[in-house]
Amino acid sequence: MTLKITNLSLAYDGQAIFQNLSLDLSPGSITGMIGPNGAGKSSLVKAMLGLVARENGQVQFNNQPLDLRKHRIAYVEQRKNLDLTFPIQVKTLVETGSYGQLGLFRKPGAREKAASRKAMQQVQIEDLADRQIGQLSGGQLQRAFVARAILQDADLIILDEPFVGIDAESEAQIMKILRLWKDEGRTILVIHHDLSKVHDYFDELILMNRGIIQAGPSQQVFTAENLAQVFNPDFATIYFQEGPQ
């Protein structure tokens, strides 16, 4: 199921973040989005999902307005934006992934609770089920949100900086699930910051800085020339001379 963004524009306080941005995301691949702080990556996701008001543009998923497909979307926001004092246990958080399928006024039953336990087992956090979310490490929390996304059974999965401040084991567990989703033909978008993982993690890559600089297969897009446009020429030169490739 293809995600199609057409002529999307967003501004905050009269200042343009991006203008007439168009982009297609294909199913059955993991797409990474990279750019400097303030490039508009998170703003693009929020505008796409209707979480902030966009000036103009259309967003379609499977040839339908995205607003009609929200029950088929899993969105994991940046950890820094979450209220970790909220009194909710891990198992309850994961169970909320079933709400979209249950509908209004229905609570998770035995079937949903069993699915929740299975999802927690998949990401190896079943022993944390009774913890309040603020008691989790960064990696444990991200795994809990991925478990919730498993329960959502979404066609479109969006993760905003999921690997920031987490341990290597959690990162590996999350990537394992993302690759399973890829093999199932789902559409996956990951906002990311670690350039060294681009070729290992992403089939497709979006380079962004107040608009799309380049987008396409990672091997073609991740070049010194393109990085120079996104960051700066000195950074790109140093990275490709001395950094991992």
TrEMBL record:
PROSITE patterns: ABC_TRANSPORTER_1, ABC_TRANSPORTER_2. InterPro entries: AAA+_ATPase (IPR003593), ABC_transporter-like_ATP-bd (IPR003439), ABC_transporter-like_CS (IPR017871), Metal_Ion_Import_ABC (IPR050153), P-loop_NTPase (IPR027417). SMART domains: AAA. Keywords: ATP-binding, Nucleotide-binding, Transport. Belongs to the ABC transporter superfamily. Gene3D superfamilies: P-loop containing nucleotide triphosphate hydrolases (3.40.50.300). Residues 3-235 form the ABC transporter domain. The keyword ATP-binding applies. GO terms for molecular function: ATP binding; ATP hydrolysis activity. The keyword ATP-binding applies. This is Metal ABC transporter ATP-binding protein.
